[in-house]
Structure formats: C-alpha cells, structure tokens
Amino acid sequence: MSNCNVSGGIPEEISNLTHLTTIILGGNKLNGSIPITLGKLQKLQGLGLGDNKLEGSIPDDICRLAELYRLELGGNKLYGSIPTCFGNLASLRILSLGSNKLTSIPLTFWNLKDILQLNFSSNFLTGPLPLEIGNLKVLIVIDFSMNNFSGVISTEIGGLKNLEYLFLGYNRLRGSIPDSFGDLISLKSLNLSNNNLSGAIPTSLEKLSYLEDLNLSFNKLEGEIPRGGSFANFSAESFEGNELLCGSPNLQVPPCKTSIHHTSWKNSLLLGIVLPLSTTLLIVVIWLILRYRQRGKQPSNDANMSLVATWRKFSYLELCRATDGFSENNLIGRGGFGSVYKARLGNGMEVAVKVFNLQCGRAFKSFDVECEMMKSIRHRNLIKVISSCSNEEFKALVLEYMPHGSLEKYLYSSNCILDIFQRLNIMIDVASALEYLHFGCSALVIHCDLKPSNVLLGDNMVAHLSDFGIAKLLIGEDQSMTQTQTLGTIGYMAPEYGREGRVSANGDVYSFGIMLMETFTGKKPTDEIFNGEMTLKHWVNELLPISTMEVVDANLLRQEDIHFAAKEQCVSFIFNLAMACTVESPEQRINAKEIVKKLLKIRDSLLRNVGGICIRQSNLN
C-alpha cells in the first residue's frame, strides 16, 4: 500500500495478521508512533514505513522480529537512540533510517556482521566514526552523510572489501583520508565532501579500478591531485573548494610547483632568452606610443570605450542598427535607470544592450558604478559585460545575452513552470555569485538590489546575477558596512537599509532570503495580501509551523506525488534557511558561504531521495 495517500495512525490490530511476511506502507501520510504490537508478527521479513510522518522513538519490540531482513523507517520524524537490541537482529541485511532525528548508535549495533546496506543519513548522529564499523565485512552501502560525526576517519574502513558506496559528506570529519581506502577494491562511489579533511589525497586511491564517482569538494586538502587510475575520468567538481590542491589545468586548480632543478632551468631560460626579447618588445611598444601621441588624437564619431571593453569596440551607430533603432520589438525590459534591448550584431552574434536613461540624473553614476564593478569581477553566475559605449549623449553596456530572460518572468508565467530542482539550482547559482562577491573578490562587493528580475537565466537555465548599478565596493577589512542615499527595491531591502541607508553583506543576505521565499511561495513581497504588519516574511513565519503546504507554491507540491514526503521536507528546509537569512539583527544572519553549503546539502538530500543514485529502495521486492 505504498504511495496510496493513506493517512492516520497504524492500527495496533495489525498484529492480528500473524502470517504476514512483508508490510509496505511507505510514501503515505501515516502519523503517530510505530505500534509496539508489530513485534507479534513473528514471520515478518520486510517492514517498509519510510517517507511518512511517524514520530516518537523506534520501539524495542521490533527486535522481536527474528526473521526481519529489510527495515525501512527513513523520512519520518523518529528521534532518540537506535535501540540497543538491534544488535540481535541476526537476519537483518538492509537498514534505512535516514532523514530522521536520531542521535546515537549503540555499540551493540556493530554485532550485525552480515548486514549489507546502512543508511543513517540526515540525522543528528555525533561523535567519531566507530572503530567497530570494520566488523561489518560484507557491507555494500554506507550512507552516514549529513550528520555531525567528528574526529578522524577510522583506517578500519579499509577492510571492507565488498563496499561499493561510501557516503560521509556533510559532517565534521577531520584529519587525512586514510591510505587504507586504497584497499576498498569494490568501491564505485566515494563522497567525503563538506568536511574538514586535510593533507594529501592518497595515491592509493589510484588502485580503485571500479571507482566511477568521487566527491572530495569543500575540504582542506592540499598537494597534487593523483593522475592514475580512475582519476583521469574525474572533473573539477570532484575537487572544488580545496584551495591548496594543484594539478592538471582541466581540474581548475593551479599547476604544481616543479622541482628545484626544473625551476633553475626555467630561470636560465628567462634570463637568457625571454628577458632580452621582452625588453626589445617593450622598447618597440614605447616607440609606437610616442609616435601615436605626436600625431595627436583624431576626432571620431564612435563612442569612447570604457576600460571594461574586453574584445572589440562598438559605435552608437552599430548598436542602433543591431537593435533596429532600439525598437520596442527588441525591448527585453525596463529598469530604474534605463532599458535593455536584444541586439544581433553584424556577425550574427546575439547580445543584450543596456541603455542608460540620461534624463535620470543618477543614471550617469549608475553607469560608472557598473563599469567599475564589472571590469574586475568574473564568475560563472555573474552576467558578463562584453563592452561599453559612452559619450556625452549616450551610455550603454553590451552584455552577454540570456535567452531565457529573468527568474521573475518564469515565476509568474502560466506557460512554463519551474520545478523544485530548477528553482533550487537557480538559488544555488545566485548564492554562489553572492559568495564570490562577499568572499572571493579583492574588495567586498555589496549588490544592494537582489531580486528575481535581476537574476537572468542562460543556457541550461544557469542563473546569472545582473544589474550592479547601485552596488557598493568596500575596500579594507574594517569597512564591512557603509551608508548610501540610493535605496534598493521595496520589499527586498533589509530593515537597516530601508530605515538608515546602511548597506552591508548582511543586507544582501536578507534580500536573498526574501527572494528565496518568493521563489518557493510564488508570491511577491509586494503582493496585495501583504499590508501593514503582515509581510511575506511574517506570513511564512506564521504559517510554516502549521503546514508547509500553507505557504509553498501549489505547483511544487502535490499530495499524490510519490516523492511528496521528500519534497515537502526539502521545501521545509528551504523556508527555514530563508528565515535564518532574514532575522532582524544583521549580525545574527548567516553568511553567503553558509547559505551555499546549506543549499547544496538540501539538494544532495533531495537527489538521494528522488533523483540521484537510489540507495534506499522505496519498495520491498
């Protein structure tokens, strides 16, 4: 009876069905506690109660089911410790307790020497990984991700020769990756991401000939990335977020430092050949510059180009032709300081042209600010400025064209509805751009106007943050906050920004939180239902404890969806994150780095439960 929309509690009278060998009730709306009378079903081999709303602790009575082979209780609200008596379930082979609120594993549990699959992900388990895990010699799957495990990884895990999937991501593990991992000869997938692991990646991993998926991202690993074995097949995503790694350029890491002998040879080459050639070239360039200056500057009808130009110059005439005279048919959108047009250049390339409205006094400053910002920042989730065009009567930026328009357009379109994965990926893209602006630039960049209309969607629906017309560049570690008289958009501004004109990275986080709420509720902060004290933030805060369904966009969650429970939990986590972004005190808000980590964690959980490698099977076959 899985995924049948069954609600209510599990009746105690189920124990009367004494000949049952399998119960499958996963993916429903069952609530209350697990009845202790289940312990009377002595012939039970499979019990599937996953993805419901069951609460309370796991009853010891389940340990009376001597023939139990598979137990699935994941995706509920169970809390407390795993019962001590689980160590007596000698027939148990598959155990899934993920996405609950469990806090500890008893030592007796490691007596289950014949167990094949363990899923304890997304709980509140703490402490070091137990050494006794090495006793479970026939294990095929371990998923301990998204808990609070700490300490070093036991070398005992290397003795699990049959292990194919090992997931330890999103914990607080430290120390090095044990060399003994090279003994996991059956391993197909390894995820150690988002921990505090340090040291080098052991070259023993090159021996793992079956390894297909590797994720070591966002740790503190250092040294050269191995090149042999399966490492030739891994992409940069496997290693991102480890700033001290080096290796092949296609992994987006710096090259490793060469030996002293090699460095000496390069120095000789530099002194003997390159330096004289460079000196000669420099003399020629200086001579050409001096000769050009003697000729004097010739008047030109072309607009002067800003330093932001990166590949070619444009005249007003070219941009006028490319947009059909800035025709309304090519108008993409209008903003406070101007309009954006779609343009087709002479070579057929499509671009966007942002024309500033010079009738607005602040447009001059907005143009200068955007040029200043965009010439020095580069990120895959920031809109790319190709060039600019500027004279006394006309100012424009030539931008990368985004074929899918803005996030705002999609959120309120009846023709094309973004699903939960698309919205989550877009928010991860925006958060990544924000993390770069706040932590990845030489100076702190405050966007000041985060909202869906400033999030543009390119190929494959990759999001790009745009419009830096009122952004602020803060130089110096002590300049974490500044003041401005230029206000952002009503509904998205942080309280301190709207009241006092104080802008900071914390203010951007607040705006992101509001946009996160809007993206998953489908309601603008300026919606007519919000007035007086009732704001989008207060509305979500009041209704979320009652039910996620009260606030989520109706297009995202449907009761009949077989993955309803997993998606509902995902959306609940997202709204809780949005509330953490929008707390009243700026100092108490989380930062962009934490936002990215939490969103990635939410996405990983959703992929595991809905669309990723299926570790926990939803049916008991």
What does this entry look like structurally?
With 621 residues, the chain is an alpha/beta fold. It has 4 domains: 1-124, Ribonuclease Inhibitor (Leucine-rich repeat, LRR (right-handed beta-alpha superhelix), Alpha-Beta Horseshoe); 131-254, Ribonuclease Inhibitor (Leucine-rich repeat, LRR (right-handed beta-alpha superhelix)); 316-400, Phosphorylase Kinase, domain 1 (2-Layer Sandwich); 407-610, Orthogonal Bundle (Transferase(Phosphotransferase), domain 1), CATH 1.10.510.10. Helix content is 24%, strand content 19%. It contains 10 helices and 31 strands. A 9-stranded parallel sheet has the order 2-4-6-8-10-12-14-16-18, with no helix packed on it. Strands 11-13-15-17-19-20 form a 6-stranded parallel sheet, with no helix packed on it. α7 runs antiparallel to α9. Pfam families: LRR_8, PK_Tyr_Ser-Thr. InterPro entries: Kinase-like_dom_sf, Leu-rich_rpt, Leu-rich_rpt_typical-subtyp, LRR_dom_sf, Plant_receptor-like_S/T_kinase, Prot_kinase_dom, Protein_kinase_ATP_BS, Ser-Thr/Tyr_kinase_cat_dom. It comes from Citrus clementina (Clementine). Its main location: membrane.
